[in-house]
Write a structure and sequence with these properties.
The complex is a heterodimer. By secondary structure, chain A is of the alpha+beta class. Helices cover 73% and strands 8% of the residues of chain A. Chain A is built from eleven helices and four strands. A four-stranded antiparallel β-sheet of chain A has the order 2-3-1-4. Chain B is 32% helix and 24% strand. Chain B has nine helices and ten strands. In chain B, helix 6 packs across helix 7.
């Protein structure tokens, strides 16, 4: 068994280097396809980060009655924070609302200053864990005696959901389509490399080599092409890490993109798994057509 | 010698149509162990409808030297493909050392192929391997231990007279030397049956003679040889058993015969 593995690996190694041009073509194709695939995965990661950031920004705003005492507000805040749908609660006092208004509309200072009292209500800004749960929070707020009214965000949430669905479905479809194209092209390139050695397979069959002795060297060779392709792709991605990260934060205009260690490791593992996987698959399928008789 | 009438009236080829279920009525003949190769009522038709062999019967005892002759398309290649179990018979039996090749399990096919040495007109050598490695390849890919390969290769290279060229690549060899390399490779498993498909087809007459002499010597060493050929001069001169195929039937089977019918 050990001898067989040694034989297969040795033959795979020889096969790879003795058919340099074909191996080069297969490896180059593998690299291009893996770069394409990982580029798409990186884009999709950026998209997902953007989506979850936007979702985290969805707020339910509840305007409070002027009669609400600080104790009432504190009690309401506490009860809201206890709700699982709520991720955080912020309080905007009447004075702060007034300052914000002045800062945003300096030209209208005269208008608001002409009023006898500050007309702006205090409010609670409630960030949601999942924007789709806004209704239960809104219902709860509407029942509170200290709440004047709750801003209806149903339409906003619905529109946001539509956009998110389109983006996520589109991203997944694109990834699947490109994945299939990558699979098809790489398998066919490896097939060409195997077909170029049909004579060798024929001789092996004629001299009485068993299927395993014919198949496994090619499978190891396919794995070698995948390993090499994935290695080069990972090095390329590593070198391009800086530009990619700045591109992503420029393009998506969102600060908290974590193109950090975990994303890098996930992509590296995906590239490695995909490369070796389709290398093996390509070899297996290509050799199989010679063995079925 | 043999008249066309008598040669055409071999019992197995012209079964009487009035005999009930004629093909199955014969009791199965016990196959003597000394028979290396037996074909019994073999018919082969290809998926495209072409019938390559029609009811072929052939017995080759151990130590025989058989020329398989006939025009192109007569079925010689099909006989060889059936013998190396590259194809299966549509009807009938192909037995190698008493084993029915048609009922062979897939994983046993390689083992049977190791008992058959086969060479072709186009040599089928690997261009980037030396003579030694081409011959050793047959052992390497059948799981031989590394330390057993070199002595076995040296032995067959001595038989075919290529010891001096062992480290050359096929491209550096003459056609005859390339064919001798292929013969050495076919011999390295100590085959029971040696099949040569037009081995001299690409070679000039002098070199062809060298190859025939080599095959005769292999035959003298006890290996049964079956050689398909168009080379009338060689067949007639050697005077061995001649099996002639025409349109998928054996039309002549004579010992000590010439390439063409002599009557």
């Amino acid at each position: 068994m050990l001898g067989f593995i040694a034989f297969s690996v040795r033959r795979a190694w020889h096969g790879f280097w003795h058919n340099g041009l074909m191996s080069l073509a297969a490896t180059a194709t593998m690299i291009l396809m893996l770069v394409l695939l990982s580029g798409l995965i990186i884009l999709r990661t950026g998209l997902e980060a953007t989506i979850s950031y936007v979702q985290s920004e969805v707020q339910v705003v509840a305007y409070l009655k002027d009669s609400a005492t600080p104790q009432d507000v504190a009690a309401l805040e506490t009860s809201l924070q206890a709700m699982p749908e709520v991720s955080s609660v912020g309080y905007l006092s009447k004075e702060k609302a007034y300052q914000d208004f002045l800062a945003r509309h300096p030209d209208e200072a005269d208008v608001i200053n002409s009023l006898p009292t500050n007309p702006l209500p205090a409010s609670l800004q409630i960030n949601l864990a999942d924007p789709n749960n806004y209704a239960s929070v809104a219902t709860y707020l509407n029942k509170q005696p200290t709440v004047d009214h709750v801003v209806n965000i149903k339409q906003t949430v619905d529109q946001l959901n539509t956009v998110i669905n389109v983006l996520q479905t589109g991203g997944t479809v694109l990834l699947v389509v490109v994945g299939l194209i990558v699979l098809f092209i790489v398998v066919n390139t490896i097939r060409l490399a195997v077909v170029a050695r049909a004579d060798e397979i024929e001789i092996m069959r004629l001299v009485g080599a068993s299927d395993a002795f014919i198949r496994w060297p090619f499978i190891f060779e396919g794995a070698l092409v995948g390993l090499l392709g994935a290695g080069v792709t990972i090095v390329l991605l590593f070198l391009g890490q800086g530009p990619i990260t700045s591109f992503l934060s420029d393009y998506f205009k969102v600060l908290p993109i974590e193109a950090g260690a975990t994303v890098g490791r996930d992509i590296a593992l995906t590239v490695l798994g995909t490369g070796v996987g389709i290398g093996i698959l390509g070899s297996y399928l290509s050799v199989r057509s010679y063995l079925i008789r | 010698m043999v008249s066309p009438e008598t040669s055409d009236s071999k019992p197995s080829q012209n079964r009487r149509p009035d005999a009930p279920d004629a093909p199955d009525s014969e009791p199965p003949k016990p196959v003597p162990t000394r028979i290396v190769l037996a074909m019994q009522g073999v018919t082969k038709s290809y998926p495209n409808g072409r019938v390559a062999l029609r009811g072929v019967d052939l017995m080759v005892p151990e130590g025989d030297f058989v020329f398989l002759v006939g025009p192109s398309g007569a079925g010689k290649s099909t006989v060889i493909k059936l013998l190396i179990r590259d194809e299966l018979p549509t009807k009938g039996l192909v037995l190698l050392d008493g084993r029915d090749l048609g009922r062979l399990k897939r994983r046993d096919v390689p083992k049977v192929r190791r008992r058959i040495g086969v060479v072709f007109q186009d040599f089928k050598l690997l261009p980037n391997k030396t003579v030694r490695d081409n011959v050793g390849f047959a052992l390497e890919v059948t799981g031989a231990r590394a330390k057993d390969i070199a002595p076995a290769v040296d032995r067959v290279l001595r038989v075919v007279g290529l010891t001096g060229q062992a480290d050359q690549l096929p491209g550096q060899l003459s056609g005859g030397e390339q064919q001798r390399t292929a013969i050495a490779r076919a011999l390295v498993h100590n085959p029971r049956l040696f099949i040569a498909d037009e081995p001299t087809g690409n070679l000039d007459p002098v070199i062809s003679w060298e190859i025939i002499q080599l095959l005769l010597r292999i035959n003298e060493l006890g290996v049964t040889v079956l050689m398909a050929t168009h080379n009338a001069e060689v067949v007639t001169a050697v005077r061995k058993r001649v099996v002639a195929l025409e349109n998928g039937r054996i039309v002549r089977d004579e010992v000590g015969a010439a390439y063409h019918r002599e009557d």
